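step: validate -> pass
step: tokenize input -> pass
step: predict -> running
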Amino acid sequence: KQWYQRRVRGHFSSSAAVSPPCCNMTIQPENPGIPDWSIQVPSPTASIPLPGSTLHTSNSSASLLTTSSASNKPKILLMGQAKSGKTSIRHVVFHKMSANETQYLESTKKIDKWDISSKSFLDFELWDFPGKFDIVTYCQMEGKVEQIFKKAQVVIFVVDPLDDRTGSNNTVEKLHQTISLANKVNPELKFEVFIHKSDSLNDDQKQESIREVTHRISRKLINNGLQEKINSSLSYKTTSIYDHSIFEAISMVCQQLLVSVIQPFESLLNAFVYSNKMEKAFIFDIHPKIFVATDNCNPFEIHTYELCCDMLDLISDFVCIYQEGELEDKDFILTSSSINLHDGKLFLKQVNRNLALICIQQGDDCDASNHGILEYNFQLLKNGIHSVLKVANM
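step: predict -> pass
step: emit ->
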């Protein structure tokens, strides 16, 4: 990979995670705002899942016209016009399909329901709606509005800006109908508008697309008296399956399902970054490559996130080469790896079966003598994460 050739000096090390040093090492940051996170909780061992593993699908992916859903899991609804890229997003993020292979996917003919929990820390259902789905006609059937929107947490509405400019698809009208029906049943429902296929646009065109789509949607909502009701629940993002923008956008969506653990995770990461002089740290859900939390010490930068994602891909590929099949629980080992960069160092340390810490440290702070402190602090971080998950019953 280009980033690997450009930044890596050729050093790669991989080893099993070690226990905390026997000495009573204590890190006491000067900042009084950093919480006490020395939590002692035993943690199980785990292993990075193999890439390309298929996710579990519910027993019935048939159309909801003939099948009802009895699941109590939260739902994310994937909607939009035909050929806007909804199914491609699902396969690239959750099925590890390459972006180039998505051109061979068939159009969605029915409502597909997918259980994401099989190979992921996240636990929700993703409903993929066909582009030609008539939400108004469908919801006129008795009880269908509640069936779709009652337990939904987020609606992702995918827009193809190039196709929408031609006027062939009434995207704004379809989004307005969806918002109107959903707001009557679930006023707390969040709406994320993905202005997709942004790889075909330059920076100026991206900004123009956001302004145009935002203006048209806002004008439609104002005319129908819905602007004030859902203004805080509607946001816009530019995405593409050919870069990391889609993973960043899906990460932001999934974090809305993790309200009970996001703040504790951020506090733990803040303490870890401050104590070890890290530039940035992420907690990743390994299989879908979604980050569930990051620190607030430094601003989010897309190139840092891309670097961490590429490291996760690299280590997963190594595991795929040297590990045959799925290991039993007793055979799992924690993955711990590091990569030297020309201006710093990347660390990956697995927390459990599905979660991993990936952080980056600048060159001036990369000192081999601090390895013991880093390992000790990571054990405290890992114990803290397990404690939060235990309290949240996750």
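step: describe -> The two ends are 36 Å apart (CA to CA).
step: cleanup -> pass
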